Amino acid sequence: SQLATGSAMLAGLDDLTNQPPRGALRWYTMTTPAVILGTGQKLTEFDRNAAQAAGIVLHRRSSGGTAVFADPLLLMQDIVLPTDHPLYTFDVTRSYYWLGALWVAVLARLGIAAHLIDVEAARTDTRDLDPLTRRSCYGGRSPYEVLVNGKKLVGLAQTRRRAGALLQTGIYTHWQAQPLADLLLLTTDERAALVERLNRRVVGLGDLLPNYHPADLLPALIEAFEQELHTQHGITLEDSTWNTTELATREREATGRYGPLG
Questions:
Q1: What are the backbone angles phi and psi of residue 136, rounded to the nearest 5°?
Q2: DSSP letter at 202?
Q3: What digits encode the pLDDT tens for the residues 197-217?
Q4: Distance of alpha carbon 43 from alpha carbon 236, whole angstroms
Q5: What is the set of domains in the chain, with CATH numbers?
Q6: What is the layout of strands, in order, in the sheet containing 74-82?
Q7: With 32 labelled, which of 2, 75, 80, 255 sits at a CA distance of 20 to 30 A?
Q8: Strands 146-148, 151-161: parallel, antiparallel or unpaired by DSSP?
Q9: CA–CA distance from 209 to each of 79, 108, 141, 212, 218 (Å)?
């Protein structure tokens, strides 16, 4: 149901009771561990018996890329923008820029020096990336994602529909490569190599802020994001409820498109 809410937010832009459509933002984590496959990733790459034994469910998301291990350590953010929103742009790649730049400023508020990966560097990295590391979405780099000391901290994805765009962010509070590696059909040597390579390319927020108590980490991050969103773009968030179209879409897609994979 967590994955279905992004599609529900997009569908809500067409709801007749929500006109003119407004942008929306949502934070969430997975309450139980799951592996989220990219649109084109093969289910045969995974050890489904190992996943079942560990109580881990496999799902497929609507955006591209490869697998993400999602558990309570992965903070996720959905932002939906109608096409007439000031932050919306029709250029798919450029549409990440404002969000990546915002995250760099958010992290600076917490004392972390981060930077964006530009389009050319991201495309070069993708071209040169080895097939093993490609198995993990966080092993790759896309334009305007956020790096700290050369390691990926903020991952970005998006889905587009006629009414607008869904921009998605993921940040691990603590990075662990092993859980995903254990669920891929790999030899022992391949698994060890994947863990080593991912640990050189990815970092978690808590690893950069060791003085923060774990319970304070996410509230501090969310507060910094909301403050920077207002500072840069004059946006103040307001609580809202799900409209009829969103509720119906979430219920339908939670058991359909985003339901557990066999």
A1: -105, 130
A2: B
A3: 999 999 999 999 999 998 899
A4: 41
A5: 4-255 (3.30.930.10)
A6: 24-28, 74-82, 164-172, 151-161, 146-148, 115-116
A7: 80
A8: antiparallel
A9: 25, 12, 23, 6, 11
Interval 23-68: pLDDT, tens:
999 999 998 999 999 888 899 999 999 999 999 999 998 877 899 9
Q: What are phi and psi of 55, to 5 degrees?
A: 70, 30
**Which tens digit of pLDDT belongs to each residue from 140-172?**
999 999 999 999 999 999 999 999 999 999 999
Residues 6+ apart with CB under 8 A from 128: none
In angstroms, rounded to a whole number, what is the distance separating the alpha carbons of residues 159 and 5?
13
36, 70 contact by CB (below 8 A) = yes
Prediction pTM value: 0.95
Q: Which residues contact 55 (CB under 8 A, 6 or more apart)?
A: 32, 33
